[in-house]
Amino acid sequence: ETIFRKDYIAPGFWVDTVEMGFDLELSATHVATRMTMRRNHDSSEKDLVLFGESLKLLQLRMNGVNLKKSAYKIEGETLRIANAPDEVTLEIETLINPLKNTSLSGLYASNGNFITQCEAEGFRKITWFPDRPDVMAKYTVMLRADKKKFPVLLSNGNLIEEGDLGDGRHFAKWEDPFKKPSYLFALVAGKLVCQEEDYKLKSGRKVLLQVWVEDGNLDKTQHAMDSLKNSIRWDEERFGLELDLDRFMIVATGDFNMGAMENKGLNIFNTKFVLANPSIATDVDYAGIESVVGHEYFHNWTGNRVTCRDWFQLSLKEGLTVFRDQEFSADLVGTATGRAVKRIEDVRLLRQVQFSEDAGPMAHPVRPDSFVEINNFYTVTIYEKGSEVVRMYYTLLGHDGFRKGMDLYFERHDGQAVECDDFRAAMADSSGRDLTQFERWYSQAGTPRVKVDATYDAEAQTYSITLSQSCPATPGQAEKLPFHIPVAMGLLGADGKDIPLHSAAYEAQAGATSLVLELTEASQTFVFTGVSSKPVPSLLRNFSAPVVLEIDYSDEELGLLLANDSDPFNRWEAGQRLATRRLVKLTTAVQQGEELSLDSMFIEALRATLNDASLDPAFRELVLTLPSEAMIAEEFKVVDPQAIHTARQFARATITEHLRADLLSAYEAHLTPGKYSPDAQSMAKRGLKNLALSYLLEWSDESTFELAKTQFDEAENMTDRLAALTALTNFSGNDKQAKSAAKSLKAFYKDFKKEALVIDKWFMLQATARTTDVAKVRELMTHPAFTLNNPNRARSLTFAFCNANPSRFHAADGSGYALWAELVIALNKLNPQVAARLARSMDRWKKYPESLQAHMKAALQKVADTKKLSKDVLEVVSKALAS
Ligand code: ARG
Ligand code: ZN
């Protein structure tokens, strides 16, 4: 059942128009589809092929004639009609049950409303259809439903007619003027209200913008609306791309498998990425909304106008659109350090999750060669590494060169379904650059490693940097060929200042202080001349390629970089290297029962950064944040989660012991009194202040506990309230303090009982608390507010525990894994996509000590042996077991 990229065959028939009629009832929706099709003479597929799943077929007519059962063949999800004429009008009637559809793919019910999710292959759960992205058609959709229960009826494009049907029912007819693949189809029906406004495009054309939510949530839509307007303006300014519709709608639903979906003109969102006001949403939520609203909006061009030929090309739209949303958020902040802060956050995610994916059983290239279930391939590799690949074009071609490539891409492919290779060709042809070797970023999985050897020749005044690349084997790919790696770099003198660069190979840029070296061979040496003293190299500036840079720095060199590098990313990076070195040593010391200690050089470097008022507080927060337990784990062949946890906690407590006074002043200096505002400056202040608070509570003491307690009681926004509650919950104090913390936790629940997104936070906070063990998670699972039926709620407790509380999840007795198996099996029945996501928590099981591996293998096997396992879960667990 594996599907291979090499087996791609163009569709046997194209679809020109699709007319759909929906009679919407929650447990029995009648769907009538009429489509005009014509034979694709270029295809080797001669049959007319449709896909369908969980459908009751009522009627199938071809060119006006009812087809008897013998005139077509249904096998699994495929329906074939042999010997169809070249021009076909197909009429299909199906019956579906949205209420019973717990997979949240296709047409389903959410709190009494109708919602759709068709990417990747959900449209086939609505009607039989050539449900593949290279089949693009024009849609007209008629919706009919009870007027009281479903007063709002939405679909893609423009509303062309609406009215009463007389019998308590009404209708709305929508027409999408643009051809689109079926995965971009959407309909929404139910009791919804909207915030709307007319918006004037740069061209002067007016468009209608709407954000639709359930009743009672109109006080939480302003930020999404602002983000949408910012997105529209940004795409006009940065890429010259205009909104092509007269109406653009966003709908929020509490039941959604992922973040959001870019359906043409009718984006559907998880409430988590729409609803915000200061009392329920944190700064992180505000930033998330801005970037996801941007992401989905930007898909209108990168994804919808130009779409994917097949699902192996998914990164064509996702990698590019993530790159665009990252740039959008960076441009909105505007400042250089603001951009760097965003870059650091993005790289942190890439390293922590994508590098780990690359090193495990689900490793796959940015353009995969095969899959069992496409929904398993909406991964950090497709999205985040895909974005890094796009960013490398940007780095190689420069700002204007990249824009030229984008322009050519649209000029060539508007209205088409294309491949990753077409994007690369546009970049190559517009710039005249040879990007042949660059293709390996799409075809080879794994994280390349670049090793650095440098020598200084004082007599010749030359500095030579040898870069050697390699890439570990990944499933199905034992050997890798060299990548085309852009390595942005500079050299620092002893005073910490950049020195002018002179290299024969980069003559045109002589005197510049930053260069992009192009590493294309397995090993290459770059020689710099006129270097009057031994410099400190700053390599991979701004993280110019998704690789691991192996370089031996002394502590002194890292200290110089941390204090001086003109590239803020590498400044942060130097701090992380200093920290990682120490955390690895501490972990080993814990394992060997040695005494733990932290040196003053490191502590003083942190102190200097913390107190440097010339630095953006957001940047200081990032430097002061120690590498996560997951990142430390990557440094070890065999992972010991408890030792890592103990080591990191020791480091945090020791830092606090020495920096208490500095942390306290940082706390006080970064208060944000007055009305809450989610601007970059205020967010940065809150971020540093709350980091200081979390450190301060590492050191048991009456006054800091009171500080957190007061912040919790008096907070006027969710950012401060949640930060304080998290610190209180993780505080290890006396009984009285523990009781007081528990009381705050209770009060929080009571205050926000009606806000589902806040209750998710309440579960998440507990799931990731230091003291929360398997038994506590099981207890929380019996809480009346907990359910596995809602993905957000399921994720907030169970995913958070399995993925973000490693020292507790990996309990020695294997009880965490047993819980994991139970959850995956339960979710598999309800929602295979969500189940398969949780299944991924066990990807790296081979990295743990054998005692744990035995428990993990048993849990994996238990899942694999489950009857009626979805192909989603089966693919994940069988790949893990085979590793
Ligand atoms: N295209 C959507 C986005 O990135 C996500 C769709 C995810 N679909 C899925 N089956 N997992 O915005
Ligand atoms: Zn996307």
Distance between the termini: 19 Å
Number of helices: 25
Largest sheet: 9 strands, mixed
Count every beta strand, where a strand is a DSSP E run of 2 or more residues: 32
Which stretches are poorly predicted, pLDDT < 50 over at least 5 residues?
none
What would you call the shape?
globular
Strand content: 15-25%
- Cα-atom radius of gyration: 28 Å
Helix amount = 40-55%
The ligands bound in this entry are: arginine, zinc ion
Structure explained in plain terms:
With 883 residues, the protein is α+β, with helices and mostly antiparallel strands. A hairpin with a 2-residue loop joins strand 7 (73-75) and strand 8. The structure holds arginine (ARG) and zinc ion. Arginine (ARG) is lined by residues 119-120, 258, 260-262, 295-296, 318, 375, 378. Residues 119-120, 258, 260-262, 295-296, 318, 375, 378 line the site of arginine (ARG).
Layout of strands and helices, then pairs:
Elements (H helix, E strand, L loop, with lengths): L2 E2 L8 E11 L5 E11 L8 E4 L4 E7 L2 E2 L6 E3 L2 E4 L5 E10 L9 E5 L2 E5 L18 E11 L5 E4 L2 E7 L4 E7 L4 E2 L5 E4 L2 E8 L5 E8 L8 H18 L7 E7 L6 E2 L4 E5 L12 H16 L8 E2 L5 H20 L2 H23 L11 E2 L8 H34 L3 E2 L1 H12 L8 H4 L5 E9 L4 E9 L14 E8 L22 E5 L3 E7 L6 E4 L8 E3 L4 H10 L3 H24 L8 H12 L5 H8 L4 H5 L7 H29 L10 H17 L5 H13 L3 H13 L4 H18 L3 H12 L6 H8 L9 H14 L1 H4 L5 H16 L1 H8 L10 H15 L6 H11 L2
Parallel strand pairs: 2-12, 19-20, 20-22, 23-25, 26-32
Antiparallel strand pairs: 1-24, 2-3, 3-9, 4-8, 5-6, 5-9, 7-8, 10-11, 12-15, 12-16, 13-17, 14-15, 18-19, 21-22, 26-27, 27-30, 28-29, 28-31
Helix pairs in contact: 1-2, 2-3, 3-4, 3-5, 4-5, 5-6, 8-9, 8-10, 9-11, 9-13, 10-13, 11-14, 13-14, 14-16, 15-16, 17-18, 18-20, 22-23, 22-24, 23-25, 24-25
The structure holds arginine and zinc ion.
